Structure formats: C-alpha cells, structure tokens
Amino acid sequence: MSNKRLVIGTRSSQLALWQADYIAERLQKTYPDLIVEKQLMTTKGDKILDAPLAKIGGKGLFTKELETAMLAGEIDIAVHSLKDMPVEVPEGLIIGAVTQREDPGDVLVSPKYKLFDKLPVGAKVGTSSLRRKAQLLSVRPDLNICDLRGNVNTRLKKLVDEHFDGIVLAAAGLKRLGFSHMITDVIDPAICLPAVGQGALAVECRCNDTEVTDLIAFLNDDDTLACTKAERAFLRRVQGGCQVPVGVYGTMEQGRLQVEGIIASLDGRRIFRDCTVGEPAQAETLGQSLADKLLAAGGREVLMELGIDV
Fold first, then answer.
1. Would you say residue 193 lies in a domain?
2. Out of 84, 103, 106, 165, which one is annotated catalytic?
3. Are residues 152 and 181 in the same domain?
4. Which of 85, 129, 200, 298 stands 20 to 30 A from 238 (CA)?
C-alpha cells in the first residue's frame, strides 16, 4: 500500500460493487485521510454464464484473478462474498477481516404463488446451487428445479423471461441491492441450511502486509468470525465446493457456538443432518468434528458417489 492510498480489487457486478463500496465507506469513515480506490476485474465465474457452477469445476471461480492481482501488488485488498471463497487461501494471502453477517438465509421470489408451501406440484424453480436443490427436493421431490446463473439482476429478469414459478436466492444479496420488496417467502433453515459464510463479507490481503492487516482489523466481527471459521472447517473436511450438496450454519447463543450441518444426495432422498455446540474458541474443531459425525452417519457414501474421497 502506498502512503495514505488503498486499492480495492472487486468484480464488476452490481452486488460486488456494493460490497466494495461498503468496505470503502467504512475505511474512509474510520480513516478520513485515506484515499480509497477501486480496481474492477472480471473472473472466470463471471465469464462462463451458460453452464452450471458445478460443471465448470475448479476452485476460486470468483476469486482467483483478484488474488493474482493482489500477489502481484496491483491491488491491496480484495472484497469477496465469503461464500465464494475456497476454504484454502493461496499462499501469501489471508482473510484479514470477516464483517458482521447480513441475513444468512435463502429466500423465495415468486410473484404468482408467494409462499414455498403454495408452489404447485411440478413447479419450475430456479437456483444455481446444488445445496439448495438437494435440500428443497428432500421436502418437495415433485419440484422441477432448473439451473439459474447470472448476477442478481439477471436472475430476477430470468424469473419472468424463462417462466419460472419461483427462484431461490440469498437474502443478503437482495437486501444489499434494495430488492427486499421482491422477497415473497423466507425459507426456513429447517428446510434449507445456508452456504458456508453466506451473508458475510471477507476482506483478503497479503499476509506480510502488516500495514494493511492493521488497517482493516476493525472490520472484523468476532461472532461472525467464530461462526464462519466453524463453517469453513466443516467444508474443508468434506472437501466441499460448488460440486457438493452440503450446508452448514453457525450461530452464537448466549456465548456458545452452535453449528448445524447437512450432507445430502443430489436428489435429496438421503440427507444426513446433525448439530454440535461448544466454545467459540474451538470453532474449527467443532466444524471438523461435526463433519466427521455426518460422514460416519452415511455422508461419506454420498460424497464417494460424487467422486469425492474423504
């Protein structure tokens, strides 16, 4: 970082820009003399829009280009949706801050039917997530769940253009972009656990850049950090990514960390679900032990059928 100037790397989608602007505003409010600039970049995940995320494969679909620029010294920090970040951060980089979580859940946008329970038999429902697909099919095996890619605006447009009866999105993205009024139903976590880190922002930086790590430390939210550490440890243990139908959600209750997770078959017919409670300081151990429990209960066979050896 040059003196009093910080460059934020960000994708150019409306939501990514909102996230970068949010971090920039907080930095400038805390450090009035700091000049914050944005550098817009395009990632592989932004370029390939005609295929499901699970079929594109690979890790870091929405982060790799930003991380390469950071390691080259072209940008100082990158702002990501934490759920887009692979559990293994490239050597030389760290997650320097995890912000307080926005609503972590999933929601339904269905102008015609409004509620998930009111969707008709065989309803066409759009989502880009195997996690959502498996969990929704476990309670509504009749649904016709179709792949839905693109940024928030694109998905809302496709809702109409492609005649979906409803689409399922992350609540956080809709709320951040001012689309709260589009939400017609909140999907209960008992039906669909969120993705790892959903609703939280991650600020990534170079691990040896102490000036920057000190600068962004105030952005950390301790409760969110503990919850997402457990979630990411769970995902690391099951070797999860876009190709794996797993969900995990950490919450803080009276100073204790509760972590709930699922491993599901793609068709939703087999779901292994459990939870554990412990101290926030043991977040990663809690996440890993919960994953081990679900793997032993039958999750390992489900993942092996998907070609994942855990």
1. no
2. 84
3. yes
4. 200
The model scores a pTM over 0.70? yes
284 falls within a domain = yes
- 53-76, pLDDT tens digit by residue? 455 455 566 688 899 999 999 999
Q: Answer yes or no: do 77 and 129 share one domain.
A: no
The answer to whether residue 89 is domain-embedded is yes
For tokens 């243990």, the residue is 237
267 catalytic? Reply is no
Look up the CATH number of the domain holding residue 38. Answer: 3.40.190.10
Residue-wise pLDDT tens digits, 11-62: 988 999 999 999 999 999 999 999 999 999 976 655 555 555 455 455 566 6
